Amino acid sequence: MNHPQRSLVSVIVSLALALLACSPLGGAAGTAKTATPAAPPTSKSAGTTATPAANAATPTVAAGGAATEAASATAPAGGEATDTEAASDTATPTYDAISAQLTVPPLLTANAATATAATGSLRQWALAAQASSQYGDLDWAATQATGAPNSPASCGDNKTAWASAGNAGQDYLELAYTTTVVPVAINIYEGNGPGSIVKVDVEEANGTAHTVYTGQPLVTADCPRIFSIGITNVTAKVNRVKIYVDQSVVKTWDEIDAVELVGNP
After folding, report:
1. Which of 68, 108, 118, 242 has its CA 20 to 30 A from that of 99?
2. Domains along the chain?
3. How far apart are CA 246 and CA 164, in angstroms?
């Protein structure tokens, strides 16, 4: 009769030992916490490792007792913190400055306002003319530039204006006036291919010349036009005007219908 009791005691002891073995006091491992793996370090350049993100926000206590967040920066030898995430240098874009090389059209010269404002002075048209060359003996001759303008108001080739023999070289037109004056302005009426006037002189009766305009030939869409030159640097009295043309750029006849000399007797 004692065997069943012994068996029952054995079962109870076995159960007690089993429970003791499963208890933390018994040294058995419980449910383990899964450790979060740290992110692999990244580097901006060789030999420099960024501070892992898990440590970047670790609070530290400052001397005053307030909690501050540690910055993810490294301190150089001088003690000043520098950001390890600093952006790489960017090249500054550069370009070559190219000169525009533009020429101001000679339609309005620096003294054009003076020419326009020269009212009350003596205005006269040329009495006689000669040229280095002319396209015809009568039509397009130098004498066609004497007197008041008589060509059509539209742009075009007109035999009532002076034209040189060729249309791609250098020539001049010289005009004489009745009354000697201290010049104030010159108004040149161009009726075809304007833009080739490169120099204008006024001349005294003894032949002394004074240059009142120089420029470069330039194609212009303003046709016909009045090329006005204001004169402020000549005090001598003059009675002739000499106009130089260079038609190698425009490559067409710069026809001059009339030239007005404005001055004070």
Report:
1. 108
2. 112-256 (2.60.120.260)
3. 11
